[in-house]
Amino acid sequence: MLDFYWHAHEMLYGFVPAIMTGFLLTAMSNWTGYVTARKGRLLGLVLVWLMARIALYIPTLGLKCSLGLSLLFYVLVILCLLHAVIKSRIWAHLLPIVVFALYAGSHFAYVFCLLNRRSLIAQDYMLATLCLVVGMISVISMRVLPFFIARRFNLRQVLIPKLSNILGICLPLLLALGMVFSKYPVVLPLTAVLSIIFSFNLSYILFKQYTSKIWTEPMLWVLYGALIFAMIGTPVLVLGRLWQFDLPFKVYDMGVHLITLGGIAAMTLGMMTRSTLGHTGRSLQAPKLMPWAFRLVFLAALLRAMYPLTLDYFWGHMWWHMSATCFILAFCFFLYHFALVFFKKSL
C-alpha cells in the first residue's frame, strides 16, 4: 500500500472508528440507561481493534487480514450498541448505529477498490467516509454541545429547530452518497450545493448556541472551534472535488485537513479531556497545558490545510512538518496530564 493510502486508511479507518466507538458506547449508555460494554467486553473490542492495526503489516495478505478484523470490530461494536437500544426500546437511537454501519461499509469499499487497483474510486469512498464523520460531528453540535454550554453557565438549554436537526443528519448522508456517485455529471454540482446548505445550517446551529462566555472556557471553545472548522471544511472539500482538475492545487485536500485536523482531532482532544475528567470524578476544568494543546491542534489544521497553496517544495514541506509537530505535541500534552490517571482509582 502506498504511503498516501496507508495514511488515509489508518487515520480514517483506524483512529476515527476507535474514537467514534468510545463516544458511542459512552453516549448510548447515558441515552438508554443500559451498559453497552465494560471490563471483558471492552477489552475484547480493544484487542480486536489492535490486531486489525498489526495485521496490516503481514506480508501480501496484510490488507485483507486487517479488513477482516476491522469488520469483526464493527460488528461487535454494533451488537453492543444494539443491545442497549433493544433493552431500552428507544428506537430513535438506532440512527447513530446506522451511520456506524455505513462507515463500516465505506471501509470495506475503500479497501476493495485498493485491492482491485481502482485508486480514484477509493479516493471517492475516502471522501464519502469523511462526510459520514461530519455527520457525527453535526450530531454532537445538536445534542451534546447545547447541554454542555447550559450546564457550565447555568443557562437554559438551547433547543435546536426540528428542520435544522433533520438537515444536520440527512445532508451528510446525501453528501456521502454524492461522493460515491461523483462520476455522474450532475451529481457533484448538486452535492456542492448541498454542502453549502449544510454549512449554513451548521452555522445557524452554532449561532443559536453562541454566548461570549464560551471563550472563557477552554473545554467549550475547543468543541465550538472544531465545529467551525467542520463547517468551513465541508464545502471546501466538496467544491475542491468538483474543481479537482481545473485548479493548479488540490483544494479538496485543504477541506480534508480542515475537517480531520481542525474538526475531528480537536473534537477528539476536547471530548477525551472532558470524558477523562468527568468519568474519574475530577472537576471539569482544563489542566494548565490543555488549552495550549487545543490551540496547537487548530494551528496544525491551518498549517496543513494551507500546504497545497505552497508551490515551493521547501516551504511546503516546512509547513507540513510544522503541522505534524503541533499535532504530536498536542496529544503529548494530553498524555502528560492523563496517562497516569487511567491507572488510578476514580476520585
From TrEMBL:
<protein>
    <recommendedName>
        <fullName>NnrS family protein</fullName>
    </recommendedName>
</protein>
<feature type="transmembrane region" description="Helical">
    <location>
        <begin position="289"/>
        <end position="307"/>
    </location>
</feature>
<keyword id="KW-0472">Membrane</keyword>
<keyword id="KW-1133">Transmembrane helix</keyword>
<feature type="transmembrane region" description="Helical">
    <location>
        <begin position="93"/>
        <end position="113"/>
    </location>
</feature>
<keyword id="KW-0812">Transmembrane</keyword>
<feature type="transmembrane region" description="Helical">
    <location>
        <begin position="67"/>
        <end position="86"/>
    </location>
</feature>
<dbReference type="Pfam" id="PF05940">
    <property type="entry name" value="NnrS"/>
</dbReference>
<feature type="transmembrane region" description="Helical">
    <location>
        <begin position="42"/>
        <end position="61"/>
    </location>
</feature>
<feature type="transmembrane region" description="Helical">
    <location>
        <begin position="125"/>
        <end position="150"/>
    </location>
</feature>
<feature type="transmembrane region" description="Helical">
    <location>
        <begin position="255"/>
        <end position="277"/>
    </location>
</feature>
<feature type="transmembrane region" description="Helical">
    <location>
        <begin position="319"/>
        <end position="343"/>
    </location>
</feature>
<feature type="transmembrane region" description="Helical">
    <location>
        <begin position="219"/>
        <end position="243"/>
    </location>
</feature>
<feature type="transmembrane region" description="Helical">
    <location>
        <begin position="162"/>
        <end position="181"/>
    </location>
</feature>
<dbReference type="InterPro" id="IPR010266">
    <property type="entry name" value="NnrS"/>
</dbReference>
<feature type="transmembrane region" description="Helical">
    <location>
        <begin position="12"/>
        <end position="30"/>
    </location>
</feature>
<feature type="transmembrane region" description="Helical">
    <location>
        <begin position="187"/>
        <end position="207"/>
    </location>
</feature>
